[in-house]
Amino acid sequence: MTRDTSGPPRLLAAGTGAAVALCLAVALAHVLLVFLHVAPPNAVSKAYSRQIDAWVRPVFEQNWRLFAPNPQSVNRQISARTKRTAPDGTTRVSGWIDLTARDNSAVKHNVFPSHTAQNMLRQAWNSYLKTHGGDNQPRSHRAVMIEKYLRNIAADRVADQRGGTFDSIQLRVITQPIPAPRAAGGFRPAAAASASAETRYLPWWKVSSHGTD
After folding, report:
1. What are the phi and psi torsion angles at 57 (to 5°)?
2. Is 127 in contact with 108 (CB distance < 8 Å)?
3. What is the rounded distance in angstroms from the CA atom of residue 70 to the CA atom of residue 64?
4. Where do the structural domains in the chain lie, given as residue ranges?
5. N or C: lower Cβ tally within 10 Å for the chain?
6. Do 170 and 81 contact (CB within 8 A), yes or no?
7. What is the DSSP letter of 57?
8. Which Pfam families match (predicted)?
9. Among residues 176, 178, 179, which one has the least CA distance to residue 196?
């Protein structure tokens, strides 16, 4: 009497085929949604704008700056500090952690720097500037999403770099205009010479507990 061993291989083949089909379907849907996002406004993209934005932003957001990049006119230093509230109500605030310097060190002398080191924090802050006013108040669903995105990036990087436990985080952004090149004769324009750094403090944001003591 022989045993039928065709069952498990058939189940494995069926499962593999279903997984491949699912991956292909997700990949095709992703390409279609990104295409509709970057394409000129049309009837389909307008009708399904909410679904497209929910999938694309903020992780898969695209633009055409790869072909016509906007040069940076300022240097920004983004730093973060954390706060922990003890059970007795006392608080402990950490010193500032330079997140931009950490990114710069990961890019410098690296032949193949990662996208996260080059652009994640910088693009998150650029998006925050576009969606928030000077009072740091979100006025749309997208603004709330961008705020959470920036907060989570900062909290994860602080936890990874310093460790410890904290329940609130604050960002400080120092913006320094890039001076114009010197004119012939070595003179720099007066406007560029007088440009000074601008410091912006964001409010304290509550975060989920990070790290351990």
Report:
1. -95, 145
2. no
3. 10
4. 10-56, 74-210
5. N
6. yes
7. T
8. DUF5819 (PF19136)
9. 176
Q: Within 13 Å, how many C-alpha atoms sit on residue 191's CB side?
A: 2
Instruction: Specify burial of residue 82 (Cβ count, 10 A radius: 0-12, 13-18, 19+).
Output: buried
Total-model pTM: 0.64
Q: What is the pLDDT along the chain (213 residues), one digit of tens a residue?
A: 555 555 677 888 888 888 999 999 999 999 998 888 888 888 888 888 888 888 887 677 766 555 555 667 788 999 999 999 888 889 999 999 999 998 888 888 888 877 777 788 988 998 899 888 888 988 888 899 999 999 999 999 999 888 778 999 999 999 998 877 666 555 555 554 456 889 999 999 999 765 443
Closest C-alpha among 131, 151, 150 to residue 141: 131
Torsion of CA 43, 46, 51, 54, to 10 degrees: 140
Q: Which two tokens stand for residue 62?
A: 């695209």
What's the rounded Cα separation, in Å, for the pair 180 and 189? 7
CB 93 within 8 A of CB 46: no
Dist CA 149 CA 114 (whole Å): 19
